[in-house]
Write a structure and sequence with these properties.
Layout: E1 17-21, H1 28-39, E2 43-45, H2 46-54, H3 58-65, H4 67-79, E3 87-90, H5 99-105, E4 109-115, H6 118-127, H7 139-157, E5 160-163, H8 169-184
Parallel strand pairs: 1-3, 1-4, 2-3, 4-5
Helix pairs in contact: 1-8, 2-4, 3-4, 6-7
The structure holds shikimate-3-phosphate.
Shikimate-3-phosphate binds at residues 24, 28, 47, 58, 92-94, 131-132, 134.
Length: 185
């Protein structure tokens, strides 16, 4: 799929949720905050909710309990997100690992794949050094291996791809808000 256009998978009649998926370091949280500010919708960050529930930062939770426990908690939190009310949902990069997560997230949602090239992701993750590596001991290899594996999933589940390395955040938000408003009228 080239570019950033809307795909042919049907949009809900009314968009009540903006769901941001995509690899770590692509800027989901920044966009989620900005969109929520424009639309005056609340933001739910699955990572922050996991941390609140576990009462510890994600890197500590994973060191202590492992990835399986983290994924189970993340899935529980997603299943319990309030439905039927406007919200921006800022998802951890691994939500697409479990199809059940997407079944919950898809309700009345515009699903946005927030993407960036791997060099940009690498630079951003080097600065934000507290994210635990996913499967490889070297950051660059970890990104390459997991990005390659996940890319088709982000594509499959999203209505729209935005590229935060190539496009300005204000422009991206404008485009998304326009889709939400068109869908309303
Ligand atoms: C993860 C991404 C992280 C966080 C956890 C696992 C992943 O979220 O959920 O470290 O599997 O890619 P961000 O995408 O917000 O960094």
């Amino acid at each position: 799929m080239g570019g950033n256009s809307l795909k042919t998978i049907p949009l809900p009649e009314t968009i009540q949720r903006l769901v941001l998926i995509g690899f770590r370091g692509t800027g989901k949280t920044t966009l989620a905050q900005q969109l929520a500010g424009i639309l005056q919708w609340p933001v739910f960050s699955t990572d922050r909710m996991v941390e609140t529930t576990a009462n510890m930062p994600i890197h500590r939770l994973i060191a202590k309990e492992g990835w399986e426990k983290f994924r189970a908690l993340e899935s529980r939190i997603i299943a319990e997100l309030p439905a039927g009310q406007p919200a921006v949902i800022d998802c951890g990069g691994g939500v697409i690992e479990n199809p059940a997560n997407l079944r919950h997230l898809q309700q009345n949602a515009l699903i946005i794949w927030v993407d960036a090239d791997q060099t940009t992701i690498y630079q951003r993750l080097q600065i934000a050094g507290d994210r635990p590596l996913l499967s490889r001991p070297d950051l660059r290899e970890d990104i390459a291996a997991n990005y390659r594996r996940r890319e088709p999933l982000y594509r499959q589940y999203s209505h729209l791809r935005v590229d935060t390395a190539a496009e300005n955040a204000d422009k991206i938000c404008e485009r998304i808000v326009e889709i939400v408003q068109q869908q309303k009228s």
